[in-house]
Amino acid sequence: MMKHEHDHSQGPCSLCRIELKNVGVTAGGDTLLSDISFHIHCGRMTALVGPNGAGKTTLLKALLSQVPYSGSIRHVDAHGHDFPAPRIGYVPQQLSFDREMPLTVEDLMAASISRRPVWLGYGKRVRETVKQALQETNAEHLSQKRLGNLSGGEMQRVLLAMALMPLPDLLVLDEPVSGMDQNGLSLFLQTVSHLRNTHHLGILMVSHDWQLVKQYADEVVLVNREILCAGTPEEVFSSQAFRDTFQMYSLKGEENP
To answer: What is the pLDDT of residues 221-245, one digit of tens each?
Structure first.
């Protein structure tokens, strides 16, 4: 099995980045992640791929400071000098809520940034912040739509807009297009690409959709509790490490890329 076929953590880097170095996570005596080192470059999309149970969700939790970890996660400039801790916007696979609840998109987004209950109303500044975020994701027309009436693609664009309040340094997408129709998927990813280019965001996307990764990702990191391979989509998907990993899981009936 090949390890660190293309190690992004080694050697000089001339880009601002989120830098993970020797990140490890243990729980109950089990090693969930070991020696994870790679860069998430500003203005580029990095895809995190791996079989079920590989530790992808655990790594996201470490980035979001939801689990203790060893090693370091730094936000650094092109010269390796530290920025403040990165602002991270997170887009989950889905949002669980009562679809009968009479809550509009604007209500949900206002509640996420206001300390006041939405039924007490919210001010002009909050409304303007919500409006600008929805404009960024081509979703301003959804402002007064009830959450329960949104399609899957519309809901994901709303969650993406919420992740932009305030504008993050790193945007984390956790299987963000699962279950979307083709039109919704294309619009969502075009919007993400526009945000990356316009605001120079670093983007980390977890996905099992290899065609999507090949089309949109700049770098790919293959992980199975440790980094097995990293590089361009072409390098990773043609690697022996990728073939070995998913052949093993296909034989078990757990994963079929």
So the answer is: 999 999 999 999 999 999 999 999 9
Mention every residue, 6+ apart, whose C-beta is less than 8 A from residue 193. 45, 216
pLDDT tens per residue, range 157-179: 999 999 999 999 999 999 988 77
Domain segments of the chain as ranges? 94-167
d(CA 124, CA 110): 11
Instruction: Count Cβ atoms below 10 Å from residue 132 Cβ, excluding itself.
Output: 14
Q: Give me the sign of the Cα torsion angle 167, 171, 172, 174.
A: positive
DSSP character at residue 194: H
Write down the pTM of the prediction: 0.86
Which amino acid appears at position 97 of this protein?
F
147: closest CA among 107, 191, 187?
Answer: 107
Beta strands in the chain (DSSP E): 17-27, 30-41, 45-49, 70-76, 88-91, 170-174, 202-206, 219-223, 227-231
